[in-house]
Amino acid sequence: MEIGVIFKIGAVGILVSVLGQVLKHSGREEQAFLTSLAGLIVVLFWLLPYISDLFETIKKLFTL
């Protein structure tokens, strides 16, 4: 796993956290929830190739 991906995930987490707090304090809890959900989806799409590689490696390990 590249170190850049870890920094991207951290940046998205900080950004989503700040946006969520601002939206919650302004009374827009629905938008805060959707912001958190969007951040989660973005991170999952970034991690999807790594998860796929992990399963392929495990599959190769057990099919020797």
TrEMBL record:
Domain of life of the organism encoding this protein: Bacteria
Keywords assigned: Membrane, Transmembrane, Transmembrane helix
InterPro entries, per the entry: Spore_III_AC, Spore_III_AC/AD
Keyword Cytoplasm set for record: no
Annotated Pfam families: SpoIIIAC (PF06686)
Signal peptide: none
Chain ranges passing through the membrane: 6-23, 32-51
Record's protein name: Stage III sporulation protein AC
